[in-house]
Amino acid sequence: MIRWFRKKKVGEPAYRQNSWKGSRGLIEIDRRQRRWARVRPTWNPKMRIAAWAAGLTMGVWAVIVGASHLAPIIEHGLEIREIQIQGVHHVAREEVLQRLALKNGTSLHRISLPFLAERLRTIAWIKEATLERLPLHTLRVTVVERQPAAIARVGSEFLLLDEEGVVLTRLGDQDQPSLPLVIGATQKILLQGESGLRRTVQASIELARTMAHTVEGRVEIDVSDPLNLVASAKGMRFQFGHDALLDQWNRFRMVKAVFKPGTLDGRKRELGEVDLRYDNRVIVRERG
């Protein structure tokens, strides 16, 4: 009796599938597969493009937000706190800093090194300037200065020139006899003259420095006539053509030994003028 009234075990609930059986079911499955094959190529690429676009938008937004927060930190981390200046002797440090014109808080990565170097080269004494960034807060400035090579006399004023004829500074009425003297050039030619006239001045300075190793006394060159330069030293006068000045001077040096001072008929012979304007000729005139 007990066994009769015992509950029967209830099986797990089964779910009904709305699918056809047999051949009709196979037809239904095939129809669904063909419909999915039409839908999948249409929607999958669009979904991928949408996902890429959304991801790219989020990435750009994250970069913008991150940059806006990191920018002040980077600016402060690369702020210029020290400026090292090397190679200056005639130029004051304050003049270099003034020409750089860097504001407080300027970062190393925000400055243009070629632009600043060009600004420094506008200082007459500075021939070349190189700038370097050093971690983390240092800017190094290396300068090559021009060297005095000659004195130019313009009216009653003396100007200090380098070997390229660049005016380094005004000396007023103070001369420097240890340097060659250039006369006959106007201030306009020296400061902003034509390239041909400036080349004449440069060649004259080079000639004067070369002559100083051979002749005694201070060399003085008159450049008032570019086609006929006249140099003088200790009473001797040399006339040069407008081209190849050093070649003309070397021609004189080759025959210089022939014209050593001597006596003729009891009269002392001294050189007064040397004309080098003609090719392959050295015309010498004795001092009268």
From TrEMBL:
Naming one, the record's GO cellular component terms include: membrane
GO annotations under biological process? cell septum assembly
Where does the chain cross the membrane? 49-71
Which superkingdom is the protein from?
Bacteria
Tell me the compartments it is located in.
Answer: Membrane
Domain spans labelled POTRA = 78-146
Name this protein carries in UniProt: Putative Cell division protein FtsQ
This chain's source organism reads Nitrospira japonica
Q: What is the lineage of its organism?
A: Bacteria, Pseudomonadati, Nitrospirota, Nitrospiria, Nitrospirales
